[in-house]
Predict the 3D structure of the following.
Amino acid sequence: GETSALACLAGAVFLLLLGIASWRVMSGMLIGGFVTATALNFIAGPQSPAALSLPFHYHIVLGGFAFGLVFMATDPVSAASTPAGKWIYGFLIGFLAILIRAANPAYPEGVMLSILFMNVFAPLIDHYVIGFNIRARILRTHGPR
């Protein structure tokens, strides 16, 4: 995964065609990584560490971001299971991975750590998404109280 982002892309296509991987998790992780990398680029000054000024496309091919995006974050067992939860789950993985890389230059590979953190919080994300859906359905049915 750390040597060939192109092979990870081929794996993504294969997993998406088979329906094993979730495109929502992949897209959310890409968006989260892009937002974080872009925000850090705006914050970075001339004396800032180099990790703050790396453009997003470098983060994708650097280290295991592409591998984590395709093969680890999309694990259907430990990821969020609701459609909205998958977007949130993926976004937060991408956000944390880039933030960990930029905040601690001694630990450049924050992808696995961010995936582990979000695997812990995936049931909580699903709980709140389902609760929000239930409240919205009650409001649609009975109106505001």
Q: What stands out?
A: The mean pLDDT is 89.
